[in-house]
Amino acid sequence: MSAAPETRDTILGGRVVLLQPKDGYRAGVDPVFLAASVGARPGQSVLDLGCGAGAASLCLGRRVAGLRLTGLERQPVYAELARRNAIENGLAFEVVEGDLSDMPTHLRQRSFDHVIANPPYFRRDRSLRARDAAREGAMGEETPLSDWVAAAARRCAPRGTVTFINRVDRLPEMLAAFESCLGSLELFPLIPREGRESQLFLLRGRKEGRAAFRLHRGLVVHAGSTHEGDRVDYTPAASAILSDGAAMPFCGPVIES
Q1: Are 257 and 247 in contact (CB under 8 A)?
Q2: How confident is the model at residue 77 (pLDDT cuts 50, 70, 90)?
Q3: pLDDT at site 257
Q4: Ranges for the Methyltransferase small domain (predicted)?
């Protein structure tokens, strides 16, 4: 059987090469924003749950040198792409094949300074399944969000952080899941255009954190009130993140009370 068609793309302003399936799930800006939101320091460890082809981890590894990056991915085709992408980018990235609901033993025995995830956005009791199996595996929820958060918290070291990105309609259940096992929660909305409602959000919690909840002002992604043609219309702040590899405004350390 011949291999599925692939494309060779670049993200982060050409700083990261990403091999992806031509069809099926393809990384957008979400993993780039997720990577930019992590306040990791050289020498720290990061676990990327459901890492896909490795976009978030590789963007983070390009921004912060000397990280110990690990990804968990249940779909073999994406796990292999993530390994190849690590080689393409010259970054050390350990990719473990497995499901977070039955994590391989050697991974369950480890803890990480930061855990990140871009879990499936859509509950299939409220939406239609994707026709492509790989895309459905990435976008359609099978494991509840609460299980994703619990798995992330278990693998997070004391005082470490857990950061997720998801759609705003999932925020109530995400907040409840974070509050059950993490503290010092920070919510950062991603706003498509000035005056529009937020569609995506980043949520961060700290293991054993005690600081009060913080709602950040958020980031406006696109300039202007409407999209005109095919030109790129990112705001300067969004462009600095997506093209220049800048950190998100809230990726610094939480100030504990």
Answers
A1: no
A2: very high
A3: 33
A4: 34-123
Mean pLDDT value of segment 48-71: 97
User: Which residue type, as a one-letter code, is found at position 231?
Assistant: R
- Characterize the bridge pairing of strands 6-11 and 16-21: antiparallel
* HSE toward the beta carbon, residue 2, CA cutoff 13 A: 3
Q: Which H or E element spans position 245?
A: none
Give the number of other Cβ atoms within 10 Å of residue 232's Cβ: 9
Secondary structure of 91-156 as H, E, C letters:
CCEEEEECECCECCHHHHCCCEEEEEECCCCEECCCCCCCCCHHHHHHHEECCCHHHHHHHHHHHE
Judge contact between 216 and 191, C-beta under 8 A: no
- Nearest Cα neighbor of 190 from 224, 166, 169, 162 is 166
Chain centroid to CA 197: how far?
Answer: 21
Indicate the burial class of 117 (C-beta count within 10 angstroms; 0-12, 13-18, 19 or more): buried
Contacts of 61 (CB under 8 A, 6+ apart): 67, 69, 89, 91, 92, 93
Class at the top of the CATH hierarchy for domain 27-190+200-217:
alpha beta
Band the pLDDT of 121: cuts 50, 70, 90.
low
192's torsion region: left (phi>0), alpha (psi -120 to 50) or beta? alpha
Q: What is the mean pLDDT of the chain?
A: 88
Q: How many CB atoms lie within 10 A of CB 170?
A: 21
Instruction: State the Cα–Cα distance between residues 133 and 151, nearest whole angstrom.
Output: 24
**Per-residue pLDDT tens digits for 84-117:** 999 999 999 999 999 998 999 999 999 999 999 9
Q: Round to whole Å and give the CA distance between 253 and 39.
A: 6
